[in-house]
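Review session, final week

We close the course with one last complete record, chosen because it touches almost every idea we covered. It is Cyclase, a protein from Clonostachys chloroleuca with 285 residues. Go through it on your own first, then we will talk.
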Amino acid sequence: MKPDALPKWKDLPPIEGQPQGFAWGLFGQDGVKDQLGTLNFLTPEVVLRARDEIKIGMCVSLNWGLENLAEPTMGRSTLKHELVDWRNKPGFSFYSWDDEISFNTQSSRQWDGLRHWGNTHTGFYYNGLHHNDLIQSNQLGIEKLDEIAKDRGIEFLPGDILLVRVGWTKWYDKHDDSDRSKYITNAYVWAGIKGCEETLEWLWDHHFAAIASDNNGVEVVPMDNAWRLHDVLLTDWGMPMGEMWDLEDLAKERKKQGRWTFFLTSSPLDLKGGSASPPNALAII
């Protein structure tokens, strides 16, 4: 629904048992409850209009440091950050650090989501969801690069971010714990980009800014120890590697539109001294 088609606040449809001014049910379609609220105002037309605000190509960070608030309000916990040295773990011979991060999302810069706050008097959240109903579990689950690019009409340009979908998260979402343990945790085998001299030459000569995939590591596993992409991309080149990205919806949308390029935005955690971060990535098409 476009903003100019919306009723005035005083004309919002009444909700039984609630005072005037609720937008519950306003955006839902075909009996499916809306989960976006006023984000529905961000129509394709609005996004395209916002694109015209880009004049000089400058990026300005709006992210206050996660560690800045020394004493969060209401007794909330502060950020806890620990670096794990894999070199010190028995049976592992590579050099690598992991982040283990624990923080309350209310303890620094944030978006308050629609399940953050319910009505003080009734316990109902947006669209009639009650406080007691909120807790539920949800799981989200390269070789022929030139051939694929040619088939899709893709021209790689310097500074591009390469996304490679191999179906890892799709497989993971469709299988139970037994299969996940058998084929991933214990077998340690999955599809990915082949580590070899030709791959490294191809990636460097295209001058990609970064690379990401929907699998657990970008490169094929088991890896060729002589040509580990992590060794070269991260250590030698300083090229970020994105792992376990959800590319399913993007693939469907790109196939439907017949276009395979898009505007990508990613806002990693503003964690001083961190070694990795959720990508907080969006494809804007």
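Two points worth writing down before the exam:
Residues 145-284 form one domain.
The longest strand covers residues 80-85.
Good luck, everyone.
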